[in-house]
Amino acid sequence: MVLGIISKNYKGFIILVEKFSQLNLSKEFLSNLDSLNYLKPTAIQQKSLPLSLDNNDLIAQAKTGSGKTVAFCIPLINKLDIKNFRVQSLIIAPTRELANQIAQELRKLSRHVHNMKVLTLCGGMPFKPQVVSLSHQAHILVGTPGRILKHIQQNNIDLENINSLVLDEADKMLDMGFYDDIMEIISSLPTKRQTLLFSATFEKNIEKLASNVLKNPVLVKIEEEEKVYIKQKFYEVREDNKTALIPGIISSNKAKSILIFCNMKIKCDQLADDLYALGLDVLTLHSDLEQKQRDETIILFSNKSYPILIATDVASRGLHIDDVDLVINYDLSLDEKIHTHRIGRTARAGKGGLAVSLYTHSDLDRYDIIKDTFPDIIEEDVSKIEDDLSYKIDSPQRTIFINGGKKHKLRAGDILGALTAGIGLDKSDIGKIDILDFASYVAINKEKIAYVLDKLSKSKIKGKFYRIYEK
Ligand code: ADP
Ligand code: MG
Q1: Which domain holds residue 360?
Q2: Is residue 217 located within the same domain as residue 316?
Q3: For 229, which of 11, 290, 378, 383 is 20 to 30 Å away at the CA?
Q4: Longest dimension (CA), the chain
Q5: Residue 106 lies in a domain
Q6: Which of 384, 413, 429 marks a domain boundary?
Q7: Which atom of ligand 1 is nearest to the CA of 64?
Q8: Which ligand sits nearest to residue 67's alpha carbon?
Q9: What is the pLDDT of residues 30-60, one digit of tens each?
Q10: What is the number of alpha carbons within 13 Å of residue 24 lying toward its C-beta?
Q11: Which residues have their alpha-adjacent CB atom under 5 A from ion ligand 2?
Q12: End position of a domain, from candidates 352, 384, 416
């Protein structure tokens, strides 16, 4: 089996970070990322960074161009003891071009660190100057297998302080016949080290390499994104009939996480009141809310504590809301670009989704334009919407609020520990954990919420009592 080597007993939780600021990185590091215009981690970075920063061995697989270089450079730089002017990381790459690119990325990513020295050791370059440079020390070495090995055999590298090893484009290195060289290099490295293996593919030979050089590796894999298909249904309705249709649209599609767009914030509030009166739990998101409230709203919706979020386009712009199974355009978008943006929120990782749009007679011009952009729109009559009264529109989880966050040095692991080892909750009852500067939010199976509120407020998290309440 291909995944046979993967540590089955990986104890941690795989926590997805959606922003670099959710990682345990210094302020200077974060602002450097920002200045490089790395505003948001890519998928492979989201998945791998919490693990690699936590010093795990990793096999990371993602296609070319997915941001793997940054994914391994960040933990190396973060881990570096800059005052110890000795080689602490070794990066092996298949070609000189790639090694140079990596060195360049390392230099960019470490602009906030003073005097970090990166040295490249590639074949096809004069050997002697490399020997001289090595004698002057460096923090990180990047090179190709043959040349690195040659330096090791001639004792030109002080290997003692190496605590991280990266194999980049491991598949390519094996294809080029570097297996023996790599194994020989590794045999002379300290065994107490972190090893990160990056590859675009994961075949038998990678498994062999990995099982020889990694310890309890965690596999992080980003599937090739398929072209997502979003099914779109359009209904012509009367303005005064829109709200009454919402429960039927949701229940007939058995939707669990629903994003409803209105064109104006006053509509959002009114619709929220009306749906609430119909017994539905809704959140609203519009620009009248303060940033803090908006952040909280997004957290409560994305962690599946509320089934419905009603939003305006302005408020939702730039926000990371996805994994929604139904988008409802309560009001038709003002143009086809906004429409595309809205329905994209239901394009879940390769799975596609459903978008339902309501339009009135006075929207016909706009409807025509949107229809030109999306020729496979399904036009249906409202009489076809059958309210499934047996379907309960609700969320499986509720959120507890903890008045402590990053500034109190709380980490997801601390909260998980307090909930599991501390008060005996099962891991399966715990959902997403969001840790902000001064507060944390944890989604909990709603059947267990009373228990958690009671017990957790009487127990310590990382040695301290916090105020706990339901959101
Ligand atoms: P891979 O190694 O997966 O082939 P690279 O590491 O070369 O991909 O990254 C491809 C490009 O993406 C590079 O130009 C890099 O600067 C850019 N990139 C990496 N991470 C981010 C990010 N978080 N935001 C924006 N751009 C990024
Ligand atoms: Mg790469």
Answers
A1: 230-384
A2: no
A3: 383
A4: 83
A5: yes
A6: 384
A7: 4
A8: 1
A9: 999 999 989 899 999 999 999 999 999 999 9
A10: 19
A11: 68
A12: 384
